[in-house]
Amino acid sequence: MPINPIPIWKEAPFLRLIVPLIGGIIAEWYLQLPIIPIGCFFLFSISLYIAFQNLKGFVQYKFYWVNAIAINILVFTLGMMLVHFHDISKHEQWVNNHYQPGDGIIATLQEPLSEKDKSWKALATVEIIDKQQSVMPVEGSILLYLKKDSSLPQLHYGSKIVFYKVLQPIKNSGNPASFDYERYCAFKGIYHQIFLKPNEFVVLIEKNENPLKRFLFATREKTLHIFQTYLHHDKERGLAEALMIGYKDDLDKNLQQSFTNTGVVHIIAISGLHLALVYGVLLFMLKPFSKSRYFRIASPIILILTIWLYSLLSGASPSVMRATVMLSFIIIGESFRKKTSIYNSLSASAFLLLCYNPFLLWEVGFQLSYLAVLSIVIFRKPIYDLIYIKNKTLDLIWQLAALSLSAQILTSPISIFHFHQFPNYFLITNIIAVPLASIVLFGSLLLCLVSFIPILATAIGFILQKAIWLLNSFIEHMETMPGGLWDFLQINIAQTILIYACIIAFSIWLLKKNKNWFLLGSTFLLGFMLLRGFSFWQSYRQHKIIVYNVPQHQAIDFILGRSYAFKGDSLLLEENFLKNFHLKPTRTALRVSSAPKLDGLHYAGHMVEFGSKRILIIDPSFQLAPSKAKTKVDLVIISQNPALKIVRLADAIDCPQWVFDASNPQYKIANWTEECEQLHLSSHSVVDKAAFVMNLD
Questions:
Q1: How far apart are alpha carbons 429 and 341 in whole angstroms?
Q2: For the whole model, what pTM was predicted?
């Protein structure tokens, strides 16, 4: 199927509109322009468009490009305005514009409590600030953490609480290349968090509930109760909950990582696969009524309402919303006996979702979802046509393989950019896991439908549990296969763009047999190789020390070239989650791996020599030896909460830089920082100022 961009561009008007919309969204987020000049450009583009429509026909034909410019400016500025108005920090009533420490907060829970290791968590909205003498209505969301305690009062969706504890800003760990959690929360309108003990808040009698959300949460609780009743193993039940309604609080973390490492994490993220099965079940259930004269009117209404209800129940993730909007377009088109362009449906759904929430553009799920569908639409048929198979069973397997291969073409670069890994056995895993997951999802739907018949539900639950066990066992086995995961991959945004440019150019060359596209693709490939070679050259020249911000833990990396030596808590070597979350992103970005011995690194008790630098690491076992002369060092790292005073240490140690890591309590760090200020010593708290990085060259 040769690619011919011109007809596609013409038959998909929303494809032409989505480009300037995305451009405007990106421009406003990074430039942060005031609303007045944006509004002026918006009005100018409208005026230009209206003026053009009033021109004579031959003038419009001659100056058609004026109309195109007007529409593109209009949509571009629309994207900018969407970002401006969707950013709650730009609103006058934003809580941060009026809140002062000591003010009372009245907040409403926007979801049921979810259980964490040491606390309960929920999203809450701030509605009122109590300033003692007056109250002020405000808007804004906060993350609410409640200490696990037997005296904790019952809290549900819609519960209102009052507290006076100071709100804390959401901050990143600050470790190099770590996940930007602060920006992630900002895109959701969340800038603050609070940790409360039972005696630090009061629950009000009144509630603030939305009837639809109350119904959705009640339905979700009913579904969870069904799974808890008929699925008796935690691991299997957790996967069923994730597959059916996107509820992941009970999903085993190691199992979730296994799905990620084997390239089938899309199975446990509610998406088009799940919605298609629900859609198929609905069509089957409605088939007996197809001869009714009201079927043509009632059928699309029932289908659309049900799939939207399911998407909202499952959490309304970007992938399921994309599928829901697209499927809605298809259902409406079929009801009018019209077939729409898949490119137009795809771009229209993206356009509508970005108008609803422009910050979805930065959601990994949004990016992967649209790239996967686009990749399948473009490449599935050409790949499938490469091999002709007569046997129906083998042909079905090849169809699934072609689907999986085509999806990977456009999703792999962005997946590597975000997750720094590639599952080498994704093809085998998908061929087996996707049909198994479909059976599990169908079984889950069936279990919910017959749950009012205990005997039948028990039998289905038993079979379903075995099917989920088989799926889990297969995924965990594939993860242990040698060479299954290509890990520690690192590409930056420029390299990612060049990879996509290569894919586009080479694809057009292969499908249109035009050698000019081959030359262009080769140029992009050369540019990618040069950038990648330069990044490797930079990594070989590294020589630095990093003191990480890992809460309640000591973590220090000594880096030379592409090797590192670690000094810190042994738990960070054993606990995969802590290591992967806090340390792995930095090491991946710097392209370093562990080395048994590092040139120029020598330990002598608490003193470490690395290159030409001397580093003193002070912990509770450190004893200050009496000496007439000061000990000269280049860096002091205070760790693990030693009982000491900076004043006394400064009398014995001559050091230009003092660092306090995250294994120390916050109150002590504050006291030490104050002492350093009084002594005119340079200090760095990794908790307050992010990870400490010292370049030695």
A1: 31
A2: 0.87
Range of the domain at 578: 543-695
What does the pLDDT average to over 562-572? 93
- 286 domain-assigned: yes
Cα–Cα distance, 313 to 305 (Å, whole number): 12
Assess whether 420 and 280 both reside in one domain: yes
Q: What is the CA radius of gyration of the chain?
A: 29
Question: Which residue's structure tokens are 């890591």?
Answer: 661
CA 663, CA 619: separation in Å to the nearest integer? 10
Q: How far apart are CA 463 and CA 443, in angstroms?
A: 8
Tell me, yes or no, whether 369 and 439 share the same domain.
yes
What is the DSSP track for 276-301? HHHHHHHHHHHGGGTTSTTHHHHHHH
205 and 221 housed in the same domain: no
The number of residues making up the chain comes to 697
With H, G, I as helix, E, B as strand and everything else as coil, classify residue 386.
coil
Q: Which parts of 420-514 fold into alpha helices (H)?
A: 426-449, 454-479, 493-512
- What pLDDT is attached to residue 441? 87
Contacting residues for 450 by C-beta, under 8 A, at least 6 apart: 456, 457, 460
- Rounded CA separation 126/118 (Å): 24
Domain check: are 48 and 142 in the same one?
no
The SS3 assignment for 111 reads: coil
Cα 212 from chain centre = 26
Query: Do residue 133 and residue 61 come from a single domain?
Result: no
Q: What is the pLDDT of residue 3?
A: 42
Question: Which residue type sits at 15?
Answer: L
pLDDT for the residue 662: 94
Cross-strand partners of 163: 105, 201
Number of domains the chain contains: 5
Within a 10 A sphere around the Cβ of 132, how many other Cβ atoms?
Answer: 8
**Residue whose token pair is 């088939």:** 287
Q: CA 487, CA 485: separation in Å to the nearest integer? A: 6
CA–CA gap between residue 562 and residue 542 (Å, rounded): 7
Residues 6+ apart with CB under 8 A from 164: 102, 103, 104, 105, 200
pLDDT digits (tens, 9 = 90+) for 341-364: 778 888 888 899 899 999 999 998
Count of Cβ atoms closer than 10 Å to residue 290 Cβ = 10
- Same domain, residue pair 243 and 272: yes
Structure tokens at 101: 């420490």
Higher-scoring residue by pLDDT: 332, 205? 205
CA separation, residue 404 to residues 342, 400, 410, 487, 568 (Å): 19, 6, 11, 20, 42
Q: What is the pLDDT of residues 258-287, one digit of tens each?
A: 888 898 888 877 776 677 777 777 777 777
Q: Which residue has the tokens 């990085």?
A: 693
pLDDT at 186: 93
Q: Which two tokens stand for residue 346?
A: 């795809």
Q: Hey, what's the torsion of the CAs at 106, 109, 113, 116, to 10 degrees?
A: -60
Of the residues 209, 235, 266, the one at which a domain ends: 209
| Secondary structure in 3-state letters for 583-647 | HHHHHHHHCCEECCCCCCEEEECCEEEECCEEEEEECCCCCCCCCCCCEECCEEEECCCCCCCHH
Domain finish residue from 153, 183, 209: 209
- Structural domain contains residue 17: yes
What is the spatial distance between Cα 100 and Cα 167, in angstroms, rounded to a whole number?
Answer: 9
Name which of 678, 589, 495, 622 is nearest 176 in CA terms: 589
Can you tell me the distance from the alpha carbon of 558 to that of 372, in angstroms, rounded to the nearest whole number? Answer: 40
Which amino acid appears at position 260 of this protein? T
Same domain for 116 and 184? yes
Please indicate, yes or no, whether residues 57 and 178 belong to a single structural domain of this protein. Answer: no
- Say if 302 falls within a structural domain: yes
pLDDT value of position 29 = 93
Asked if residue 384 is part of any domain, the answer here is no
